[in-house]
Every structure is written in structure tokens, then in C-alpha cells.
Amino acid sequence: MILGSDEDTATVGAQLAGQTRRGDVIAIFGPLGVGKTTLVRGYLIALGYRDEVPSPSFAIVQPYETLYPPAWHVDLYRLKEGSEIAELGLDAADDAVLLVEWPERAGANAWPQALRLSLDFAAAGARRLTAQVPPAWEGRWPPQ
Q1: Residues 9-27 pLDDT 10s
Q2: pLDDT in tens, 80-91
Q3: How many domains, the chain?
Q4: Taking Cα atoms as reference points, which of 30, 18, 26 lies closest to residue 111?
Q5: For residue 140, is it within any domain?
Q6: Do 28 and 58 form a contact (C-beta atoms < 8 A)?
Q7: Taking a C-beta distance cutoff of 8 angstroms, is the pair 80, 105 a contact?
């Protein structure tokens, strides 16, 4: 899927918001500046969040518990690959949707049932979005 603008990227996030369930994980891969946080921002705004949606690179985990379903925005960029991810307490988010940027920092076996979205740069400032869809997400991706 080609996304021609930041607005298109945010729209995909907004469409995803209507497809998620408590306990879902969306793993978002891609290089710096490709639009991972823009996608998450669209998701959170679609659920009714109205404040600024910063990248949680410093805090690593930013919970949005008042949304339905609750969501945790996770940015693992600052973690070294193979770090002790258990210290982040992400297992406590089993009732929320995890939106994870830089999920590869958690190891190759993390979140096997996650919807895996990859954003890459394409021509003329566009982005290419590809997805690996696990059985739990069949019928929910691509979003309508």
C-alpha cells in the first residue's frame, strides 16, 4: 500500500482503531522519520484522544488508559536489542492494545500474534506500508 502523505499514514492508524480489540499488539517497523508515530497518532485521535501525541522515545511507554480500548504507545528505540524488556511491565497491558515502535528491539520472538506493519520510504516523499497478518487479525486487515 502506498501512502502519499502524513495524512494518509494517520488515516491508516485511524482505520486500525476501529479494528482493534483488548490484548491486540500492533508492531510497527521502519527507519527513523518514516511515520511510525504519525500512524499511532491517527489511531489515538480516532479513539478520541485530543492532546498532543508525542513519541515516547524518552519515557518508552505512554499509556492511554481512558480510551476504549485502552492503548499503550511503546517506543523501544532506546533499548539495546536483547535488553530486559520484562522491566517495562508490558505484560500488565493485557487489557489494552499495544502499539509498539521498534519492536525488533524486544527480540525476534516477541509478540508472535502481532499485526506487523512495516513502513518504508518510497518515491517523492511517499511511504510504502506492508503487513504480516497473523491468524488473529484475519478479516480485520486491511482496515475498512
Answers
A1: 999 999 999 999 999 999 9
A2: 665 667 677 777
A3: 1
A4: 26
A5: no
A6: no
A7: yes
